[in-house]
TrEMBL record:
Keywords from the named record: Methyltransferase, Transferase
Alphabetized Pfam families for the sequence: Methyltransf_31
Protein source organism: Qipengyuania polymorpha
GO molecular function: methyltransferase activity
SUPFAM superfamilies named among the record's database cross-references: S-adenosyl-L-methionine-dependent methyltransferases
Residue span(s) of domain Methyltransferase: 45-147
BP GO terms, sorted: methylation
UniProt keyword annotation of Phosphoprotein present: no
Protein name in UniProt: Methyltransferase domain-containing protein
Organism domain of life: Bacteria
Annotated InterPro entries: Methyltranfer_dom, SAM-dependent_MTases_sf
């Protein structure tokens, strides 16, 4: 589970520090997501949970006559995105909660887009209903999100390396967090209840690049990335002594197993979800 408060605090800070390695991890997916997004013309795009802004930047560069607004709840990430978009006259970054964001009325977005930024709403149905009301009636929605953990080798393997607590409860699979939208039927249902139409799911399998470098540096890079970002980072930060060393050794081993030449990458599985605001 990752809450809005965490994005506004520790998690947002680490993502803001790590945006280069995070963009790298999404590299293969981003190309496919941008192709899907740009299949339809648009004049005004809203990037929901824009993070450090890679989608906003790429779209603004590729579509100079369209307006682009990146919206994020984390001050640190909005600041990073602002820096990256400073030279782009058709891109603006706003700090705010997408679940209650209000359009000023003149320029309703006709494209709502997100790379993994929409799975953190405490009430996703009401957030998507609200966003639909803010959008142009002809708007298109396109976002990516992870499929279930069982389909994502990277998180399954990471979880298998972490110490097990006998008291640990099975997490709610729909709790706000990176895997909240793993179940296709659940997501289709909530988007339908929120008023979205023509809902479609494209499964995308991609190589999540987590480490690069020569002479074994790729594995060290992967280990340090997993210590900084994602589900292992918090667990490792709470360990010390021998327990911490053991997990780091295992992480290193995982990096070695998934290294090809100068790159460490793990299989990842996500959906690209598309929908329209009206029939
Ligand atoms: C997994 S990150 C993805 C960031 C970015 N889209 C990317 O691909 O690098 C999720 C993002 O959603 C943002 N976020 C979470 N809840 C939000 C909300 N209610 N409104 C706006 N942004 C939110 C977080 O701050 C974070 O930047």
């Amino acid at each position: 589970m990752t809450t809005a408060n965490e994005w506004q605090d520790r998690v947002g800070e680490s993502w803001a520090r790590e945006w280069q390695r995070t963009d790298r991890s999404f590299r293969e997916l981003t190309g496919q997501l941008l192709d899907t997004v740009q299949a339809e013309p648009y004049r005004s795009a809203l990037d929901i949970g824009c993070g450090a802004g890679e989608l906003t930047v790429s779209l603004a560069k590729a579509n100079p006559s369209a307006a682009h607004l990146g919206l994020d709840i984390s001050e640190d990430l909005a600041a990073a995105a602002r820096e990256r978009t400073a030279a782009l006259p058709n891109a603006t970054i706003q700090l705010g909660d997408a679940a209650s964001w209000n359009c000023d009325g003149n320029d309703r977005p006709d494209l709502l887009v997100s790379r993994h930024g929409v799975m953190f709403f405490p009430d996703p149905t009401s957030a998507f209903a609200h966003l639909r009301k803010q959008a142009d009636p002809q708007a298109h929605l396109t976002f990516s999100c992870f499929r279930q953990p069982s389909e994502n080798v990277w998180v399954r393997e990471l979880a298998s390396l972490m110490p097990k607590s006998p008291e640990a409860q099975a997490p709610d699979p729909r709790a706000p967090g990176p895997f909240a939208f793993g179940e296709k039927d659940y997501v289709a249902d909530l988007l339908g209840k929120a008023g979205w139409r023509n809902i479609d799911f494209i499964p995308v399998d991609y190589a999540m690049v987590v480490g690069e470098g020569e002479d074994g540096d790729a594995v060290a890079d992967a280990t340090s990335y997993f210590r900084a970002i994602g589900p292992a980072a918090r667990v490792i930060s709470e360990l010390d002594g021998a327990a911490r060393e053991e997990v780091l050794q295992r992480l290193f081993g995982m990096g070695e197993r998934h290294r090809t030449g100068n790159t460490v990458s793990l299989p990842a599985a996500c959906w690209i979800v598309t929908a329209t605001a009206s029939d």
